[in-house]
Amino acid sequence: MSATPDHTLALALDLLRRGQFAHARAILEDCPASPRVEILLAHAHAGCNRVQEAARLLCRQAVANPGARHPAYDMLALLLPHDRVDEAEAVLRAVRQRARQDIRTHDMLGELLLQRGRTAEAQEILADGLSLSPAQLSTGNLMAVCLMEQGEFAAAHDLLHYILKHHPDSAMTQANLAHLLGAWNRLDAALQAHSRALALRPDDARLRMNHALTLLKNGSMAEGWAEYEWRRRMPGRQRLPEQSMLPVLSPDASLHGRSILITREGGLGDMLMMLRFVPVLAGMGARVSIQAPETLHGLIRRMGGVRRVFSERVSLPPHDWHCPFLSLPHVLRNTAGHAGLDVPYLRPSPELVRQWAPFLPMGTDLRVGLVWGGASRPDVPAAHAMDRRRSIPLRKLAPLAGMPGISLVSLQKGTYARQMHDMPAGMRLYDPMESVRDMDDTAALIAGLDVVVSVDTSVAHLAGAMGCPVILLDRFDNCWRWLSGRTDSPWYPTLRIIRQIHAGKWEDVVHRLCSMLAKRDFPPARTPDDVHGQS
Predict the structure, then answer these.
(1) What percent of the chain has pLDDT over 90?
(2) How far is residue 465's CA from residue 299's CA, in Å, rounded to a whole number?
(3) Does residue 515 have a pLDDT over 90?
(4) Are strands 321-324 and 259-263 parallel, antiparallel or unpaired?
(5) What is the pLDDT of residue 402?
(6) The pTM is what?
(7) Distances (CA, A) of 282 to 140, 317, 341, 396
(8) Gap between the Cα atoms of 263 and 268, Å rounded
């Protein structure tokens, strides 16, 4: 029997990558049996929800190659981009049922459940794997991540040290230990673990980037921003020529007549935070163009010194230098403007402020803007997991409902806004957000509020950049942007932080929030006149 031609297998693989599983299956079922055909056919069966057929073929090929990567990993890479998560989980459960002694089956299912936020189920699966091999490198690291997700930092710490006793040269385990210690706010120990990981893999851009974030969280800004430049070596991160990247500027540098393109990077909060550096470049004589999401365009145009703002759908304009948003602190580190423009550096449109005023509560109550959830991104597991930790269920904010002299205004967008359909008893939320088109509208609403209460989202950055009072409700394993052990922010002088004392526990945070609101215990708003008066 002749072998299947390579072009046929290439066609089948292309169909699988495009999510055309039934078409790929029809082609492969007519091919002579071979390992390559069986693996591709297994993936096609999985995409067609033919669970047992997929599991049988995957297990047969896994047994034939016990030391290789399990073929079901490739199945996940093909199914998950097409939102076939349920089919993938069903196949992994069937594979595990057929081959419980193969520890790889526990790893794959445990990792998928972990990515989906089902940490208790993942822990049970991974515990079965560790019962087969207590010091298994991959299983132990996954279990440590699972424990950390549940706030069990001490147990995760002990497990990683146990794994390191058996695998002392595992850079992955040292890096996970560093991440754990950083999230646990034990930053000196985290930096030591980073050093051990980098001694093993000094040119690993991802390890270097994670090291940078710990330095920044520790307040080592100059060193952290320099180290953070390693991110541009990661696949897909550096899209423009390195030779035209804006270099670190000298103290007496002049940019007169030079055109600089600032490229989109990070989330909305990152870009809002970095916009403080744009007037510095303009003040040095640069002609600045900015690539940014359309929701920010109105705010950016009012900053001054920006010749053009455009979205990613538009061709890049001619430029002498380019610089991604998050490289601005590094390239300006030696200049007089290394800290960026003082707050407020973003201003709402006066016309929009007038238009939105009728949507806000009248009277003498304290007008409190409220954001309780982030942007859920189920397609990005790490971001989705972080979002679950930073967001507060609206029901946990029930104590706000009984506070006199407080009017609550929702600034919440996205899936978390649906929680208003089941609000805590007695809570009333003014909700103008259905008509909000962009961050310019949001800024106009914020201008009519007395204080913004927000979890770690772009709205906190926006209000802070406008010089509005902000109370940030922050998770225990906080982001580097808010540093460690501080209740204030060097980025936004009108922002105060209430951080979880215990991972996942919001009750104390809400109690302290109510106390601050009752006492009006937050910084006053800052206006452009305040800034000029200080200069």
Answers:
(1) 89
(2) 11
(3) yes
(4) parallel
(5) 83
(6) 0.91
(7) 51, 17, 11, 45
(8) 13
pLDDT at 1 over 80: no
User: One-letter amino acid identity for 42?
Assistant: A
Query: Is the pLDDT assigned to residue 535 strictly greater than 90?
Result: no
- Which architecture does CATH list for 350-528? 3-Layer(aba) Sandwich (3.40)
Query: In sequence order, what are the beta bridge partners of 245?
Result: 322
CATH 1.25.40.10 fits 169-237, yes or no: yes
- CATH homologous superfamily of domain 256-332? Glycogen Phosphorylase B; (3.40.50.2000)
Query: Stretch 508-529: mean pLDDT, rounded?
Result: 94
Residue ranges of the chain assigned to CATH 3.40.50.2000: 256-332, 350-528
Q: Which ranges of 220-378 does DSSP label H, i.e. alpha helix?
A: 221-228, 268-274, 278-283, 297-301, 328-331, 350-356
- If you ran DSSP here, which 8-state letter would residue 154 be given? H
Look at residue 237 in the predicted model and tell me its pLDDT. Answer: 77
Q: DSSP string spanning 211-266?
A: HHHHHHHTT-HHHHHHHHGGGGGSTTT--S-GGGBPPPPPTT---TT-EEEEEP-S
Q: What is the pLDDT of residues 341-394, one digit of tens each?
A: 999 999 999 999 999 999 999 998 999 999 999 986 655 666 667 788 999 999
What's the residue count for the chain? 535
Distance CA 393, CA 245 (A): 43
CATH 1.25.40.10 boundaries in the chain: 169-237
d(CA 462, CA 94): 48
